[in-house]
Amino acid sequence: MRDTEPPLNQTQKLRLQRALELLESLSSVTNSNASVTVADTIPVNQEDGVLKGHGTTELEGEVVATVCGVIERVNKLVYVRTLRARYKPEVGDIIVGRVIEVAPKRWRLEINFSQDAVLMLSSMNLPDGIQRRRTAVDELNMRSIFEDDDVICAEVRDFMRDGSLQLQARSQKYGKLERGQMLTISPYLIKRRKQHFHHLDQYGIDLILGCNGFIWVGEHVETKDNMIEDEPVKPDPQNDKSKTSMSLEEEEEETYTPFETRQNICRIANAIRVLSTLGFSITIDVILDVVDLSSSKGIDIHEMLGAEFYVLVAEREAERRNSSTRRKR
Amino acid sequence: MEYVSPEGLRLDGRRPMEMRQLRAEIGAVSGADGSAIFEMGNTKVIAAVYGPREVQHRSQLNNDKALIRCEYTMANFSTGDRTRKPKGDRRSTEISLVIRQTMEACILTHLMPRSQIDIFVQVLQADGGTRSACINAATLALADAGIPMRDLVTSCSSGYLNSTPLLDLNYVEDSAGGPDVTVGILPKLDKVTLLQMDAKLPMDIFENVMQLATEGCKAVANYIREVLIQNTKQLENRHADQLSLSLFRKLLLYGFCSWRIIKFLEKDVEEET
After folding, report:
1. Which CATH class is domain B22-239?
2. pLDDT by residue (tens digit) across B225-242?
3. Which of A228, A254, A269, B241 is deepest in the core (most CB within 10 A)?
4. What residues of chain B lie within 8 A of the CB of A328, using their CB?
5. Residue A61 — left, alpha, or beta (φ > 0 → left; ψ -120 to 50 → alpha)?
6. Radius of gyration of chain A (CA)
């Protein structure tokens, strides 16, 4: 998904242009003429016996690109890395998705892939935490776990024979995501890392960078191990009334997100939106840097999507990359 | 009526073999996977591509290739007289079909089995040659969506009025009733994927007219390629945070190395770059 640039005035336009030119000069040092478009010939040494990878085809003895992107060479393999395209799953990726259908023994999820992904009832932990065969009762109670339009987090398990995708959620860290917002960005902006779950302690927020370009920003939830938890003690019939009113209040307390946390969620979400509009790669460091920038400049949350902050972030990023390359040299 | 003046100029001041000005913009629709605006003179078209995504109607699912759908519409305000057209009128159904078939010829559908690609094109301003403009816009949008294609399809029209072959007809010339040849080609493969004419022309003249349209297609292809490469470079420049891997590793080493080793490595880097 591509967001459109906010309207800029003349000085902002000039500043943005200067920042982008700096970025261009930085990246053109190393990759010169690696970009190709559809039907461009990729220069290869034919004697080496090249292997044609994704995004290439053979035409009259030449290797030709079939997508727009950047040429990558690994030993003999030549392929084109696409920039803006749908998500290409790999086994073990952590993804965020939305339930679109509850089907027999499975949920269907929208994950920005060319087909819907499948999460089988048997490939996720039940709420009671006991390992056992799934019965017909479990199947009837599927909606108590995930319903339509729920946002959930899972891991890619494997590809099925017809090319569709199977997911699994066999850990406490996977499962339903609540009290936060989901953002949709282009998947090429997110790199595969060791860590995709981030707990930002200072803001009290969980951040999940799904490999499929779906990002979750939500209130921090302690992962509690259901297996240890005891059965709740049955209340005395005498104290029943007071207890129920108590539990109602408690419930309210539990579902209530403090105002400050909600503000933090919005601030981080807007930081990600700005970065994705600019097309910068999104990592936890960059996001936190932008959040710090916005609070240090005293910029309101709603102003973060405006033109001024847009240009500021571009300049900041150009400066950051410039200094980091200089340091390395 | 005189469509070419004795000085050899057309009604809008062009030479017979001159095209209208082209303008293309990628990324016009924020929610779509790929989108583009394409202008040929006063004709302006917007295209949006969604997909490859899950097939909406199970009965249309294809096990070995992607399903391609196309919808062509004209905005009510696109023409001079504001007429309310029903959605599925004959003309737009026919053009939808034409665009779908042209695009199907170039998309590598076998790479995306069991999925569906939707192409939506809308004419924002109509001044002749909407068919070609739609095909060009759709190509750009598909390339933007990262959908693998054999080649870029480009299209251009030409006509024959006052016994002169004319390139890229506008609305006035189009409605003169003369022959109107729309050609779509794959420039790299040098193949024709679309050829339409609703009138009669002698063989030798037809060949001239078609040749002219093909030249027009090639000019459009050059422009589209330029736009795409610029867009790709821009995306990559903004995105590329790191130096190329081998160089990066060496640079990373600098932090841990003594000066002598750095000097040695620098020589190595110079050789590489």
Report:
1. alpha beta
2. 999 999 998 888 888 755
3. A269
4. 243, 251-252, 254
5. left
6. 24
